[in-house]
Specification:
single chain; 379 residues; mainly beta; Immunoglobulin-like; 6-stranded mixed sheet; 4-stranded mixed sheet; 3 helices; 10% helix; flat; Cadherin-like_sf; repeat; FAT3 protein; transmembrane helix; membrane
Amino acid sequence: ISGYSLVVQARDSGTPPLSSSVTVNVDISDVNDNSPVFTPANYTAVIQENKPVGTSILQLVVTDKDSFHNGPPFTFTILTGNEEEEFTLDPHGVLRSAVIFKHMVSTEYVLCVQAKDSGRPQQVSHTYVQVRVIEESIHKPTAIPLEIFIVTMEDDFPGGVIGKIHATDQDVYDVLTYTLKSEQKSLFKVNSHDGKIIALGGLDNGKYVLNVSVSDGRFQVPIDVVVHVEQLLQEMLQNTVTIRFENVSPEDFVGLHMHGFRRTLRNAVLSQKQDSLHIISIQPVAGSGQFDMLFAVQMHSGGFYKPAYLIQKLTNARRHLENVIRISAILEKNCSGLDCQEQHCEQSLSIDSHSLMTYSTARISFVCPRFYRNVRCMC
C-alpha cells in the first residue's frame, strides 16, 4: 500500500462539546527490497550455424515489484559461459551472436546472466540461458500463390490489409521474413513478420503483379501475388441483383466456391461471351447465418442488363447453380414488411467505400465495400 489518508478529530470537554477535524496523509516510501524477476526463471534458445554476427537469439524479460525508481532500467551482465566472447547482451536484454557459430565446433553453450535493478542498494538476480547451435536451414520455404480481388468505388479506395501470404518451412526453427520489391512500395506494403499485404489508398483500376519473396535466412523463394482492382460505376448500383446463401461462411464461399459459382453464373446470365459479370460485394445478413452476394452484368455495348431480365435467367438456371452451392433466395426487391404493392416498392442501394470487408483465405482474397439497401413505398 503506497499511502494512507486519515481524518483525525479533536473534541473538547465543554458543554456543548466542540470539535475540529484535520486530514493526515501518510506516504509510504518504497525500500528496494525486491530483486528483479526473470520470466521464465531459466531460458532455452537455438541459433542456426552460419547466421551473421548480431543475429538476435533471445529477449530476456525482467520485472520488479518495487516502485519505478527502484526497478528499471536494469543492467544485464553475462557472468559465466562467455569466456570466448561469443555473445553480447544489449541494455534492453537482447542476447545476440558475436561470432558466426559452427555446429561442428560446439553444439551447446550455458550462460549465467545477471540482472541488476536501479535501486539503492541494488538488488540482483540470476538466470541460466542454454543456447543450442543447430545445423543451418536445409529446406526452402514453400508459399501458396495468392490472388486478390479488390472492388472499390471510382478512385475512392481507402487502403488497408487486403490479404495474407501463407508460407511454411520444414526446418522447425526457421524464422520467415517477407519482402516486397522496392519500386512497388509506393502502392503496396508487406509486413515482414507475418506476410500481411497492405494496399495504400487511391489504387487505379487494373491488374498488379507483386514481386514478393519469403526468406528463411538462407533460401529466398518468390511468391506469385496478383491483385485485381475493379472500380464500380454508379450505373451498376441501379441494376444489381442479390443472391442469398445460407449455411456457408463468406470466407468459405470465397475460398471454396467463388470461382466455380462465378463460372456457372456467367453461363447462366450472359447473353453474349463479350458481356461482363461484376461481383460488387459479399456481405453477411445481420442476425442470421446468411450472406448476400451483389452482382450486375454489363453488356458488350456498355449498358447494363435490367434486374428483371437477370432474375428470369437466374430462375431458369437455379438448378444448375445449386450444383455448386445451395441458394437460399434470389432477391430483386426487398419489400418484406412493407404494406405496398410490388410495383410501388422502390429500392435504392448505397455503397460505403470507406468501410471495407476483407475475406481472406490461403489462395484467394476478396475485398469489397459495405453496402446498404433502402426500401420505401411509393404508394
